[in-house]
Design a protein that fits this description.
With about 625 residues, the protein is of the alpha/beta class. The protein folds into three domains: about 80 residues, no CATH class; about 280 residues, Spore Coat Polysaccharide Biosynthesis Protein SpsA, Chain A (Alpha-Beta Complex), CATH 3.90.550.10; about 160 residues, UDP N-Acetylglucosamine Acyltransferase, domain 1. Helices cover about 30% and strands about 25% of the residues. The longest helix is centred in the N-terminal third of the chain and has 19 residues.
Length: about 625
């Protein structure tokens, strides 16, 4: 055996002394393959000899020792530049964190250039029409690596109902929205193209299997399975101290502890998957990135994509008006004394001190519009594919990282628990050249932003007037947006009432929902409503079909209309019934399903008019 080990080592230009700093490893070298010995050498060179301190004699736990190197090989291959690069970056970032180095030293903030849109005006309609034309040249990327624990929901977040009137989950809504855009884009582009818009979902170990299950058990919600690609992100090694020593898993001494690296991984995954090249060769121009629980997002996407095309932005961040000091990052241009400049998201807790330090004595304050001049970043990005691919060829998709250790005390010498490097997808512009055209598109929050991320207890503690960002507020925001859109096309939608659910006071509008194919842009919805229509506050209206036209409809109650694509249905007259009623539910009541009790209400279906048209033809209701 010894001679085989000698042979292996000499082939690697090593002798056994390379392991002299780790005697327990040295004793076990003959268990290891040449690749594993290379990895052992890498670990020792990077100051990780503590990983082997507890290794017993050969013959004890040998399989576990080999499994340790399987994990090291995976950590090494899935990180751009490998483990050596990860540890080196970690040491630099941990040293900066310990000395309290400000990442913004030398930078002065200013308001970047972007486009501010008003829903439904001519400008908005023009951008929307262009966006629909461009949609067939786009690919969509959903980052969905997270579970709903922070929401008080044990499933994957994309499986959560977006609203409970129709029960549509987030993933179904996203897929149906992409399909509606695909169809609308084909109608606008003469020549009857039928291009399938690619849809990528970034998953994690936590969500991968359950995302596949959700798709397969629902026939991919109408999308072709070939259109959907899942890319799974791996975790990264945890660090136990300022020297970036890899943390041993407390439950298994032959494992390194790992944690998620953040959604910035999406860039390197897309690059290494080869999809970006495939898309470019297929003539695609745009890649849109979005997050997992914003039910309003697709109401803003067509116009924002139109802005990217008309303004020729390489990077376009979707944004909403932001109140000063609101807990949402601000988009700012940062210019360095050395001439570097970038348009980037600055976290809200960093924006105020940065402004105060650079000649804005009042810090983060509202301007004459009543909002901060720095728009609020909502983490939806539109990138132009060509420049994006060129940039990733230089970086491999690596994104500037940060570290956020929780120190035991003010000496900053030891951590309360292990930490790791993290990265965020919106930090992509940090490496771009000065010539890159980076802009933003601001839309009203009622139209484009209602994330679901807080559990009922945390939401109830939010100061009055600030957004709750809960399942309750997220659902109510969908009814408000749909009601305001119908008002804009001339429907008389009654004013909302204030109600309290799970300790949160919200506006309750008419419960109006429609499938994306009924209207994915303003002009389409406008063309489906005529005459004098009215909807009372306690009403519910669910539209499930493409060619359903509302004309002189007076609704006071619940109306559900469903139709197949070749059926044209005119809906008018007076509909009155007892309707559907909201009943309060306590979020602590475990007899109620999680996805209902985190909202604080359930819908009691008392009486409704429900019509289904499943034959082609023209019908009136």
């Amino acid at each position: 055996m010894a001679s085989t080990l000698q042979d292996t080592l000499s082939k690697l230009n090593l002798d056994a002394d390379f392991a002299s700093s780790a005697p327990n490893l040295r004793k076990n070298l003959n268990l290891l393959s040449p690749d594993q010995i290379e990895l052992a050498k890498l670990l020792l060179e990077m100051g990780q000899s503590h990983s082997f301190e507890h290794w017993p004699e050969p013959g004890v736990d040998d399989e576990e020792k080999k499994a340790f190197f399987d994990q090291v090989a995976r950590l090494n291959s899935t990180y751009p530049g490998g483990l050596a690069s990860y540890i080196k970056s970690a040491r630099e970032l941990l040293a900066d964190s310990k000395t309290g180095k400000n990442p913004f030293d030398g930078f002065t903030p200013s308001v970047p250039t972007g486009e501010s849109l008003t829903f439904g005006n001519d400008n908005f309609i023009e951008f929307e029409e262009r966006g629909v034309k461009e949609a067939q040249y786009a690919a969509f990327v959903l980052v969905a690596g997270g579970l709903g624990e922070r929401l008080g929901y044990n499933g994957i977040k994309v499986a959560l109902p977006m609203e409970t009137t129709s029960g549509t989950c987030f993933l179904q809504h996203y897929i149906e929205s992409i399909l509606a855009l695909q169809e609308a884009s084909c109608r606008l582009n003469e020549g009857g193209c039928q291009k399938d818009i690619p849809f990528v979902i970034m998953t994690s170990d936590d969500t991968h299997a359950r995302t596949i299950d959700l798709l397969e058990s629902n026939s991919y919600f109408g999308m072709k399975p070939t259109q959907v690609k899942l890319l799974k992100q791996e975790k990264v090694a945890c660090l136990e101290d300022n020297d970036a020593r890899l943390a041993v898993d407390p439950n298994n001494k032959y494992r390194i502890q790992t944690k998620p690296h953040g959604h910035g991984d999406v860039h390197s995954l897309l690059y290494s998957s080869g999809l970006l090249d495939t898309w470019r060769d297929a003539g695609l121009r745009w890649v849109l990135f979005f997050q997992d629980t914003n039910g309003l997002l697709f109401k803003g996407i067509p116009a924002a994509l139109g802005v990217s095309a008309i303004k020729q932005y390489h990077v376009n961040s979707l944004a909403v008006p932001r109140k000063a000091k609101e807990a949402i990052g601000g988009i700012a241009r940062l210019t360095h004394t050395d001439g570097r400049s970038m348009v980037i998201n600055v976290e809200y807790n960093q924006l105020d001190p940065l402004l105060r330090a650079t000649g804005y004595p009042d810090g983060d304050v509202n301007c004459e519009t009543g909002f901060s001049p720095f728009p609020g970043n909502i983490n939806q990005l539109i990138l132009e594919l060509g420049p994006y691919l060129e940039e990733l060829k230089k970086t491999g998709g690596a994104i500037k990282e940060f570290v956020n250790p929780k120190y035991k005390d003010a000496t900053k010498t030891s951590f309360k628990s292990s930490t790791r490097l993290e990265c965020m997808m919106q930090d992509y512009p940090k490496t771009l050249p000065l010539s890159a055209r980076v802009g933003f598109t601001v839309m009203d929050a009622w139209l484009a932003y209602a994330p679901v991320k807080n559990n009922p207890e945390d939401a109830a503690k939010v100061p009055k007037g600030n957004p709750y960002h809960s399942a309750t507020s997220g659902e109510m925001a969908i009814y408000r947006a749909n009601s305001l859109i119908l008002r804009k096309v001339g429907v008389q939608v009654e004013d909302p009432v204030q109600q309290v659910f799970n300790g949160q006071e919200v506006e309750v509008w008419s419960r109006i929902t429609w499938k994306p194919k009924w209207g994915c842009v303003f002009s389409e919805i406008k063309g489906k409503v005529s005459g004098s229509c009215s909807v009372s506050q306690q009403s519910t209206m669910v539209i499930k079909g493409r060619d359903i036209f509302l004309g002189d409809l007076s609704l006071d109650g619940a109306l559900i209309v469903e139709s197949v694509d070749d059926a044209e249905v005119k809906v008018g007259g007076s509909v009155q019934n007892k309707g559907w009623v909201l009943e309060n539910v306590d979020y602590r009541d475990t007899s109620v399903p999680e996805e209902i009790r985190i909202r604080g209400f359930r819908i009691k279906k008392v009486e409704q008019l429900e019509k289904k048209f499943d034959e082609p033809g023209k019908f009136s209701l």
